């Protein structure tokens, strides 16, 4: 394309890491701009004036926001490279369904399981485990959610593959469990051992230190996910 | 296609009405099955076991759920008919962004403005008015959100075109205001006077009676949107 491609993200965000993973799978070079969410840049506010959130993908001066919207944009703009969506309309609909299930159900319940206590925590943990069992069922018989290759749903599930383990350790709870979710567990091992995926993941120790330092504040405010 | 096409919906739901509108715009015949949400049918539970919600579009025996996912499925399955998404990847991304803005921001704030009181209501009303001003800006210079023809965003905004006025009347508040949102107001008039759109709308009086009857319960429970 020759047009400038810039990603505004945050190192520890699974949402901007999704975009990096899609671009790397497709072999598209991009410039990365690290944002400070406590002091958002004029560029971030200019390119995402409504939500004021990362990630923002700036392509030839035009911004695309919201990670799942960006992933579809990347797929449609660089169709020839590694496909992250199947061609069949029904399978595409299923991929979109599971990506939204991850965002709307799995991530909020997991996140809140880590930053609540008592009954509220028990309820979020119960919901999380039910969601994980649903994902376990969906993965059955497949190497990746996308079949034989990493697809949209795998990219959307990056949070479960890498962040979930760190957050569980910080919160002292167990959600993704090898015994209860053997298929999901195998998927995580396979997924995060891929070279391209590894390149997109924040270092585990750095993420752990980051959330450990935030733990008290998070428990006090029960802040929703960024 | 020749394959059986069935829509499970609820007469008063803007979500299943979206699907009806897309199918009618494309001229695709379908069978409609009215669901009773207080006594969900075995079919609904079978075809949407995770969310147990309408709408469900059953095509050749295969279910698609979640209204925005269904709309994209309809677009990709019957591409040749009235296009509800533009061809250009950037414009498609923008349409997806606005559709999600309607679902994630506009609808919840409007709904809660109607079923809360006091400070909570004032805050939701403030948020709703800000959202409406953003939509007003997006519509500027265009006949429809989709340009010259009804597109995905118009379909997603069906709630604002028809339900918002009814709910405002029930709650005794004013959100969509001709003086403050002249462009949005003109869009509503244009949109709901289209023959195909009219065919998809529940009768205003029936909707009004329905929400009036529910008002006390809604105010007491502050129930989120179905």
Automatic annotation (TrEMBL), chains A, B:
Domain GST C-terminal: 88-217
Keyword match Transferase: yes
EC number: 2.5.1.18
rRNA processing in keyword set: no
Reaction equations catalysed: RX + glutathione = an S-substituted glutathione + a halide anion + H(+)
Pfam family, one: GST_N
Keywords tagged on the record: Transferase
GO biological-process terms attached to the record: glutathione metabolic process
Enzyme class: transferase
GO terms, molecular function: glutathione transferase activity
Annotated Gene Ontology cellular component terms: cytoplasm
Residue ranges annotated for the GST N-terminal domain, each copy included: 3-82
PANTHER family reported in the protein's UniProt record: GLUTATHIONE S-TRANSFERASE U8, GLUTATHIONE S-TRANSFERASE, GST, SUPERFAMILY, GST DOMAIN CONTAINING
Family that this chain belongs to: Belongs to the GST superfamily.
Name the UniProt record assigns to this protein: glutathione transferase
